[in-house]
Design goal:
The structure holds 2 protein chains of 2 kinds. Chain A is α+β, with helices and mostly antiparallel strands. Chain A has 4 domains: about 160 residues, Beta-Lactamase (2-Layer Sandwich); about 120 residues, Beta-Lactamase; about 100 residues, Orthogonal Bundle (Helix Hairpins), CATH 1.10.287; about 150 residues, Heat Shock Protein 90 (2-Layer Sandwich). Chain A contains 14 helices and 17 strands. Classes of the chains: A alpha+beta, B alpha/beta. β2 of chain A pairs antiparallel with β1 of chain B.
Chain lengths: ~625, ~190
């Protein structure tokens, strides 16, 4: 109960208590002092009388003169409080007695040592006189006690007035120094609490504890106001962001109840913030079937059971995993809208989840654009495929045409050559030299045309024959081809430098065509050299393919025309310099292309040439 | 502050003194043995009377108490004085029927019943520093210094003139218990 009393009343109580306590202690001390000093005071009064009697009665005692002794005792009547007195001789005989009252009786009292003896209401003094006699004197304490009581009463009244005055004065001082400032402080705190008005201040003048309390309160209020202003600024800033963001921003409690819903979300979903905040969970505008599918998918992914409800949106966020997914929102009017939704957990200072924040963006436009791009790509691919098919058909037709033409041309050509032979044998004698030369030229041309046609046919076959890939020992194949070409180079000095060559995955017959062509070319274009050097090797360290080169020290070529090298019937030299149809390198390129490799060449006029081809490591077609 | 009040209590008590009727009651019991009282009186005289220095042989000389006349004190006197001293001097008692049989005494009890014999003895001692004591009623007129009688009360009378003439000083205290005093030739009754 004492806790409910105001500080003012507590102080008043404490002061009153202290005053009463002081009063009681002082009163008790006074009473005790009075009692302790009673004997002393009684002695102070009685001793002079006893002394007077002692001196005056000396002779009376000596001569045992009871009359004189009585006279002397009789002088004690000046003090009415002396009740009785008697002188007893050493032999125990009563010499004289005195009594102040009519009822005084005398009897022999037991002999006591000198001193003052206090009884209830009287003090008895014993004093030894001359010659072993004793004086006994009894004084009433009534008067002394009455004096003590009067003094106690006077003291009590004075003390009471003094204490009351002190208590009232102290109370006034405390009121001004403590109670009023604290009451003011309490009132101000209450106002601050109820009105949230942080501009309130209390007067705090001085340097005592209460003033320091007030000053600290004011400083605290200033700090709170500053913090409040800063908070307002931040809040305004955040509201501006929320109100103007293109993203729909929705926050919820950990259980899913919506706590904020920004204007972009209102536009996106058709609900107003008032309709959803504090009332529903985001599951309200989701497709339940989609939520169900997503719950199953998440349960598999995370290895925990995710119920098909609000948990679906927060399961990953709860595990601190990024969660960004496409969803279909069902607007208030029932229409659907595709959105991108990312969910983040809001965490308190100790890491506990205080809510979730969802950022959502309307994907309608983006999906439409993506659909457009996809459609365009599809169309483009279709068009490319169509055009490729057309080209392939035309190419095929062309090749078929070229093959059939070549094939069909061979029979008339053979007829021409055959009949020219017959004509030559029949007319040999009649023809002049000129005519015979003409006929020889005709025959040579026909032969050359036949060669061209054969080459064309072989080139065509290279493109059409079925390819059978296998592991081919490149080194063995090279040595085989060199041995085969040896009869073509009688008497020539040729320095072969052949490196260690790997096995490759290729069609053996086709690869042979490639090597024959490249080695024949090397031999052909080094014919003018007295010392022929031909090097065949591999470029080192190619992970995905094997690169083989054939280098010679022949006439070389101008890199300006390197693009023409691998074309059909393209020739960089005249036929009278170096024979050939110009189909060899075209065959090389076609074979390597079909193997998925590449062909290229380096060279310079009169500086030799190097031809490269690559073959992929894999055996795949 | 409160302590300072205390003396007031005593003052207050004194101020409140007032007169009230008082009664004093005397002792009526008779003395057991008159000889014992007389013996005590003789000893008291040694205390309350001052002798000139030449009355003693020296500083240590004892009191000579002399009894003149018929045997009056039996052995009570000796018993009373035995072992006691007064002013540093012990007591010695002498008894004799005549003065010439006695040494020079400080106190002489003249116990003669015969008035003529008393007067003769007193005349002889008249100029000596001797305290003469007797119980005859005319003892003072005869030249004695102290006369006392033991009855229900002890009545004592003192002849100051005779005491002064022989340089004996009788203390005032003793006069307080004296019934009659002869001074300057006149008998003054004190009570």
């Amino acid at each position: 109960m004492f806790r409910q009393i105001s500080i003012h009343n507590k102080l008043a109580l404490a002061l009153t208590g202290a005053a009463l306590l002081a009063f009681a202690v002082a009163g008790a001390a006074l009473v005790l002092f009075g009692n302790f000093t009673l004997e002393h005071r009684a002695r102070q009064i009685m001793a002079p009388y006893a002394q007077l009697v002692s001196v005056g009665a000396e002779a009376a005692v000596a001569f045992e003169d009871s009359i004189r002794a009585r006279e002397i005792l009789h002088t004690l009547r000046v003090n009415p409080h002396i009740l009785e007195a008697e002188i007893v001789l050493s032999n125990g005989r009563l010499l004289a007695g005195y009594g102040s009252g009519a009822d005084a009786t005398f009897r022999i009292h037991p002999l006591k040592a000198d001193g003052v003896y206090l009884t209830d209401n009287a003090a008895e003094l014993m004093q030894t006189l001359e010659a072993g006699a004793h004086l006994r004197m009894v004084m009433s304490l009534e008067e002394l006690n009455r004096q003590t009581q009067i003094i106690l009463l006077v003291f009590a009244a004075g003390e009471f007035v003094l204490l009351v005055a002190t208590a009232l004065g102290l109370r006034a001082v405390l009121q001004r120094a403590i109670v009023h400032p604290i009451a003011k402080l309490a009132e101000t705190v209450e106002q601050v609490r109820t009105l949230a008005d942080y501009q309130q201040r209390v007067p705090a003048v001085g340097a005592d504890d209460v003033a320091r309390l007030g000053q600290s309160f004011n400083a605290m209020m200033a700090a709170i106001q500053e913090r409040e202003d800063e908070l307002r600024r931040v809040t305004r800033f955040q509201f501006t962001i929320l109100d103007n963001a293109a993203y729909g921003i929705i926050s919820t409690t950990p259980e899913g109840i919506v706590t904020s819903f920004n204007p972009a979300a209102e536009r996106l979903l058709g609900y107003t913030a008032d309709e959803v905040v504090g009332k529903v969970t985001p599951a309200c505008w989701h497709d339940p079937q989609e939520i169900g599918r997503r719950a199953l998918q998440l349960s598999e992914e995370l290895g925990v059971t995710v119920s098909p409800g609000f948990d679906v949106f927060t399961a990953r966020a709860r595990h601190n995993q990024p969660d960004e997914n496409r969803w279909t929102f069902v607007r208030k009017d029932g229409t659907t809208v595709p959105v991108l939704l990312s969910v983040t957990a809001l965490r308190g200072e100790s890491g506990q989840i205080t809510g979730f924040l969802g950022l959502t963006y309307d994907l309608t436009e983006r999906q439409r654009a993506e659909e457009d791009i996809r459609q365009l790509n599809q169309e483009l691919e279709q068009r490319v495929a169509d055009r490729t098919a057309e080209l392939q058909a035309a190419n095929k037709e062309l090749e078929t045409f070229a093959y059939s033409v070549s094939h069909d041309l061979r029979a008339p050509l053979r007829h021409i050559d055959g009949f020219l032979g017959l004509l030559k044998s029949r007319l040999a004698a009649e023809l002049d030299a000129e005519s015979r030369r003409y006929m020889t030229n005709i025959s040579a041309s026909a032969l050359r045309m036949a060669t061209l046609i054969d080459d064309l046919l072989s080139f065509s076959r290279t493109g059409r024959d079925e390819m059978r890939k296998a592991q081919v020992d490149l080194g063995a194949l090279v040595r085989d081809v060199i041995r085969e070409t040896a009869p073509e180079t009688p008497g020539r000095v040729i320095a072969w430098r052949i490196a260690q060559l790997p096995a490759v995955a290729a069609d053996r017959a086709m690869l042979r065509v490639v090597l024959v062509n490249l080695i024949s070319n090397a031999l052909k274009f080094t014919r003018t050299r007295t010392q022929t050097e031909i090097e065949i090797g591999c470029l080192p360290d190619h992970e995905t393919e094997t690169v083989v080169f054939v280098r010679d020290n022949g006439v070389g070529f101008d890199m300006e025309y390197v693009d023409k090298l691998f074309g059909v019937f393209e020739r960089l030299h005249r036929a009278d310099e170096f024979e050939g149809t110009g189909i060899g390198l075209a065959n090389v390129r076609r074979v390597i292309d079909r193997h998925g490799g590449r062909t290229w060449a380096e060279g310079k006029p009169d500086g030799g040439a190097t031809f490269y081809f690559s073959l992929p490591h894999s055996l795949g077609e | 502050m409160r302590m300072r009040l205390m003396p007031w209590i005593g003052l207050f008590g004194l101020v409140l003194v007032c007169c009230r009727p008082c009664f004093a009651v005397g002792e009526e019991m008779p003395h057991a043995n008159p000889s014992m009282v007389k013996a005590a009186y003789l000893r008291n005289f040694a205390r309350y009377v001052t002798w000139p220095a030449h009355a003693f042989a020296d500083d240590r000389a004892p009191w000579y108490i002399c009894i003149l006349g018929s045997d009056l004190f039996d052995e009570v006197l000796e018993q009373t004085l035995k072992g006691r001293t007064e002013q540093g001097r012990p007591f010695e008692v002498f008894r004799a029927p005549t003065l010439d049989q006695l040494p020079p005494c400080q106190i002489v009890f003249v116990g003669y019943q015969n008035a003529a014999k008393r007067r003769a003895a007193l005349v002889e001692l008249k100029h000596k520093p001797v305290l003469t004591v007797g119980d005859a009623p005319e003892f003072l007129q005869e030249g004695g210094i102290i006369q006392f009688q033991v009855g229900d009360h002890v009545d004592m009378s003192v002849n100051l003139d005779q005491a002064r003439s022989v340089s004996l000083m009788i203390q005032t205290k003793m006069l307080e218990v004296t019934r009659e005093v002869v001074e300057n030739g006149a008998l003054r009754r004190r009570r």
